[in-house]
Amino acid sequence: MGKESVHENVRTDYVDPRVFDLLLTALMPANRLALQLSLATGLRISDCLALRTDVLMRTQRPTVTERKTHKRRRVYVPTALREALLRQAGRYYVFEGRLNERKPRTRAAVYKDLKRVARLYRLDGKPIKRNIAPHSARKIYAVQDYHAHGSLERVQRLLNHSDEAVTMLYALADELGKKK
Question: Which residues contact 86 (CB under 8 A, 6 or more apart)?
């Protein structure tokens, strides 16, 4: 069996937030913060990593242009998380690249670190789901907001989805995961 790729065409699993929090404790600090930002805002990991330091220094509510859809979205970064992000921020990007400070960290770096940690952990003697990825944080965000507010339209707006059916897959990911 070959190495797993960041670009695998495999659907990312929803992960119980308590399990995800456990995995976060073992990640490299910058990768942990990137995933915490995704959990707090619902941003895709690539959008978290592209956040510029000067933008976060100016505001707690940055406007992000999503890399995948090119849609603009304003997010709220909680105070404690923002302070932690700024403490470790690079000169240009909050998550600077390993080899070039003028480029952001790659999503592959976060993906590999999360997969490494997930392979190491066991719950009740069983390995953690294989399809865990940074995108799992976005699904956790959607499920939590849906349970808190009960509004599919709200989740659709927060995730900037065009298609309500896609939003349903995110907002109900916990229920769909139980049926697997």
Answer: 53, 56, 57, 94
Whole-structure pTM value? 0.90
Q: Tell me the per-residue pLDDT of 120-132, one tens digit each, with 9 for 90 and over.
A: 888 777 877 668 9
Say if CB 48 and CB 36 are below 8 A apart: no
pLDDT at 97 over 90: yes
Comparing 9-18, 104-113, 166-175, the range with the smallest average pLDDT is: 9-18
* Spatial distance between the Cα atoms of 83 and 78, rounded to a whole number of angstroms: 9
> What span, in angstroms and rounded, lies between the C-alpha atoms of 177 and 6?
21
Cβ proximity of 137 and 39 under 8 Å: yes
Element (H, E) at 18: helix 17-24
Give the integer Cα–Cα distance in Å for 50 and 63: 12
Rg (C-alpha) for the chain, rounded Å, is 16
- Please give the structure tokens belonging to residue 2: 């070959």
